[in-house]
């Protein structure tokens, strides 16, 4: 029998939420990439140090926990990742779906496009989309499918959320491309092979007696998810038609909004403390306001704005600088505002609220308290718990990937040739011109949830969101009014 290294999944990886989410992440290049070069470089990455953990197989142990089973070595029979390729003779621009692919625009635009529209190009019958596709097969964690055209390349990565979050994905892509260009010295050490950097956080802060009490933990452990499921079913029955759409916001629009926000905050700010909100703060605030304006809830209805954030930088002693942690290390900041307040106040006010909630809730003390509550069975904390039990009646949940800089990922060393003549091409060689995310859930998906994908080479901001069909119609009308 082959010797394998067996490692339990880390505390933030093996969660009920991560088990139920499979992801696909498609990079669209306006260049022709060499699939074999991509494959060989990723194989080589898994031979460097402890990066071999990426090729582990997922297994359930006797107690129901997930484990990594890492083969002693990878070969053709048991590779570190699955890799498939398709070569098409015609240009991508000639494909029927090409006309629906999102492109950068002069005005804010909602596209009549979803990731499923390119299934004809990317779908495989054995594409993994649920936990069982990993634990009951000899499938590695990463599934990669490459489709080449004379004018473009599509690279699709698929994995279960137990493997990594957005920051882990960024670290993986940076390490892969470092090997691709022959710079193995730039591959960071793999952090957290055996040791769980977050394992002991639950023991640090003191909690109230009622949170620590066994009966309260049990109630919160089961009541939260149960009420969440009831809430989702209620929304799905009342509003069965929903859509997953992509949105492009020109950089000039976001820059103007941020400049205006900074000026407004400077007027009301404290002396000696210059205000600051980032472009992404302003973008998320503006987008949340758009959603609320289109849904038109009662003015006194509480709305919880949830914003995922990376906690690696909060604990530099646990995540040493210069290392790569491929795993899940994120939490959610929240801000609760009434519908009326969100519509009456300017974008600057909302952006500052988001910024302050993020700064306050990602402090060490707050993160430790949050983690402790999670470990006690409250799978969601603070704003999310509040919304489950009725303290907040509406969620807007954002996962902001801008810091991962996915549009800056450089695969130029794998470029065979530039795509078909394209005078409008502005991005750098080997960098993605479009990124198409897709998520598969074991349960009905929450409404009003989405991601800021990032900022492309032209300065355009890209979002992908999940909203009711009628809300999308209202948003389209609202964005159309900005063209006048």
UniProtKB/TrEMBL annotation:
The keyword Acyltransferase applies. Keywords: Acyltransferase, Transferase. One of its GO terms (molecular function) is acyltransferase activity. The keyword Acyltransferase applies. Pathway: Secondary metabolite biosynthesis. Belongs to the plant acyltransferase family. Gene3D superfamilies: Chloramphenicol acetyltransferase-like domain (3.30.559.10). It comes from the Eukaryota. It comes from Aspergillus chevalieri. This is LysR family regulatory protein. Pfam families: Transferase.
């Amino acid at each position: 029998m082959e010797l394998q290294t067996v490692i339990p999944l880390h505390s933030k990886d093996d969660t009920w939420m991560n088990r139920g989410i499979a992801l696909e992440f498609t990079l669209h290049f306006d260049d022709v990439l060499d699939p074999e070069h991509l494959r060989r470089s990723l194989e080589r990455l898994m031979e460097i140090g402890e990066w071999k953990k990426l090729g582990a197989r997922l297994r359930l142990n006797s107690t129901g926990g997930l484990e990594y089973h890492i083969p002693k070595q990878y070969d053709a029979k048991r590779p570190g990742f699955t890799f498939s390729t398709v070569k098409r003779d015609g240009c991508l621009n000639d494909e029927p779906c090409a006309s629906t692919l999102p492109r950068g625009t002069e005005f804010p635009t909602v596209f009549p496009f979803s990731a499923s529209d390119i299934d004809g190009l990317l779908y495989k019958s054995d594409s993994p989309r649920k936990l069982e596709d990993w634990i009951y097969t000899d499938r590695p964690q990463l599934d990669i499918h490459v489709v080449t055209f004379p004018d473009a390349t599509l690279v699709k990565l698929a994995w279960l959320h137990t493997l990594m979050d957005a920051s882990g994905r960024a670290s993986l892509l940076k390490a892969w491309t470092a090997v691709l260009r022959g710079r193995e010295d730039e591959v960071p050490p793999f952090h957290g092979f055996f040791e769980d950097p977050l394992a002991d956080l639950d023991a640090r802060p003191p909690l109230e007696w009622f949170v620590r009490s066994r009966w309260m933990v049990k109630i919160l452990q089961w009541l939260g998810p149960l009420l969440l499921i009831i809430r989702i079913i209620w929304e799905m029955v009342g509003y069965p038609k929903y859509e997953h759409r992509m949105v492009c916001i020109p950089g000039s629009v976001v820059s103007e909004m941020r400049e205006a926000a900074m000026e407004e905050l400077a007027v009301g700010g404290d002396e000696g403390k210059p205000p600051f909100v980032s472009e992404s703060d302003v973008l998320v605030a503006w987008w949340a306001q758009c959603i609320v304006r289109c849904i038109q809830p009662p003015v006194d209805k509480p709305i919880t704005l949830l914003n995922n954030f990376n906690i690696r930088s909060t604990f530099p002693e646990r995540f040493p600088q210069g290392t790569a942690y491929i795993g899940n290390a994120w939490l959610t900041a929240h801000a609760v505002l009434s519908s009326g307040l969100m519509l009456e106040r300017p974008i600057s006010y909302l952006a500052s609220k988001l910024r302050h909630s993020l700064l306050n809730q990602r402090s060490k003390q707050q993160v430790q308290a949050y983690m402790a509550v999670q470990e006690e069975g409250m799978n969601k904390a603070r704003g999310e718990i509040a919304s489950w039990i009725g303290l907040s009646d509406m969620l807007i949940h954002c996962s902001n990937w801008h810091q991962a800089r996915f549009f800056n990922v450089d695969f130029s060393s794998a470029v065979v040739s530039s795509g078909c003549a394209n005078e409008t091409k502005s991005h750098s060689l080997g960098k993605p011109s479009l990124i198409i995310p897709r998520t598969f859930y074991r349960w009905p998906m929450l409404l009003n949830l989405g991601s800021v994908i990032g900022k492309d080479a032209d300065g355009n901001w890209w979002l992908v969101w999940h909203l009711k069909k009628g809300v999308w119609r209202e948003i389209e009308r609202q964005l159309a009014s900005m063209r006048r």
